[in-house]
Amino acid sequence: MSTESWIVVAVVAVLLILAAAGGALLVSRKRKISLAPKADSKPEASTYQAKGGFSFSEGGSGATTLEPPPARIPEAPKEPAKVEATRPGDQGDEIQGAPGRGAPEERDTRGGAEPETEAWAPTGLPGVGDDASTPVDSPKPTLRDVKLPEPTAEPEPEAAEPEVEPEPEHVAEPEPEPEPVLAEPKAEAAPEEPPAEEIVPSGERWGNLRGRLARSQNSVGRALVGLLGGGDLDEESWEDVEATLLTADLGASTTEGVIEKLREALARSEVRSEAEARAVLKDVLVAELKPEFDRSVRALPHADRPSVVLVVGVNGTGKTTTTGKLARVLVADGRRVLLGAADTFRAAAVEQLKTWGQRVGAEVVAGAEGADPASVAFEAVSRGVEAGADVVLIDTAGRLHTKTGLMDELGKIKRVVERKAGVDEVILVLDATIGQNGLLQAKVFSEVVDVTGVALTKLDGTAKGGIVFAVQKELGVPVKLVGLGEGKDDLAPFEPNAFVDALLG
């Protein structure tokens, strides 16, 4: 082999050695550069552990996902820079061996100057870097596109920053919402304007009863007048009269007494027409209703205290509505009324009574839901004495007559109230639609609180108007009030003559 051949072999060997050395340097740089960002990513993980930074839990627990601390947000770009620098940027480091390249400066702006100094410090072979730069540049001109990952890495943290921006801080602004929340309803307590509404006088209310007792007219009035106006009655006809009275819910004992009086009246006078029969029947029925009873409601004030009216009854009879309607009538007569909401078991009853108080201009005393009814009733009477009220109407909770504990509680209410002022009137509210079933209720209530009067409600919607006769006969207590409908003025004093006229048509 010639000398020239040996020279060529030596040159090739030197070039191979230089290429191997340059490759080793590149591998070492990859490891250092790829490992450096991993150390920087640790602080980024800690930024999501500070859960107490922003308080967004006011509107719900889901706000905790938006609580990264703002102080460490600038370090967030280091995690994406770790991945992008290790892949496309590794080949760019080979070009960084040329002194004229600007890539190292660009990495300084993103990952810091420390990774570059560590990468170049261990080389110690400047000649090798200079010689290797020449052959590497020619085959890899596209490595200059390393700059592309830089903009992709930067927008990611920028996009994260607006998420962390204190926009939710404006969510805390709802705090001023409770400013006037309860201030406005307080003004509602003063609407005493509704009393200006015209209230139908009690004397005119019975004029509407005829049409509302249409069902009772069919079952009692027309049937009886037709039977009695047919002349002499045989036993079969009297049985028909008895059946008609029982259907009208007069009750067995009341029906027996009415038939006996009808026999006597027809025996004394000859009845040949329906008009005559109607007159005889009216006299008998009015007498059976005991017109001599005192049916006035004891609601006038005493010299040193107001009168006290206790309203009792079972559930669903219309106690609260009757109390409100009675208050409306008393206010129309110029009386100062105070309402006591002693039905503490039903929140709707308290609100309903307050509504009635606002409509008629009456003060309402109410306790908390579930409070002791006796204490509320006592407080109402005490307030009535202090305010100089003319009458205190106390609405009690509905209770079944079979519940011994609740009935004892009703007796307790009456006893506690009487420590402050005597109870002048105990009105038992009965539902006329239940017929004879209301008699047992009336008996039990009368034994507990000494019922002094009955208010018969829903009389317009029942075919059993005869319950009035049965109640008075069994209890010996007068029916004082009747409910003729759902209107605010559909409450009237009970008058036997007017009732019988409406019943017979």
TrEMBL record:
Region annotation (Disordered) ranges: 34-204
Domain AAA+ ATPase span(s) in chain numbering: 305-455
SMART domains on file: AAA (SM00382), SRP54 (SM00962), SRP54_N (SM00963)
Positions of the Signal recognition particle SRP54 helical bundle domain: 209-289
Reactions catalysed according to its record: GTP + H2O = GDP + phosphate + H(+)
Presence of the UniProt keyword Nucleotide-binding in the record: yes
EC class of the enzyme, as a word: hydrolase
An annotated GO BP: SRP-dependent cotranslational protein targeting to membrane
Alphabetized InterPro entries for the sequence: AAA+_ATPase, P-loop_NTPase, Signal_recog_particl_SRP54_hlx, SR_rcpt_FtsY, SRP/SRP_N, SRP54_GTPase_dom, SRP54_N_sf
Superkingdom in the source lineage: Bacteria
Compartments (UniProt record): Cell membrane; Cytoplasm
Subunit structure: Part of the signal recognition particle protein translocation system, which is composed of SRP and FtsY.
Stated role: Involved in targeting and insertion of nascent membrane proteins into the cytoplasmic membrane. Acts as a receptor for the complex formed by the signal recognition particle (SRP) and the ribosome-nascent chain (RNC).
Family in the record: Belongs to the GTP-binding SRP family. FtsY subfamily.
Protein's name in the database: Signal recognition particle receptor FtsY
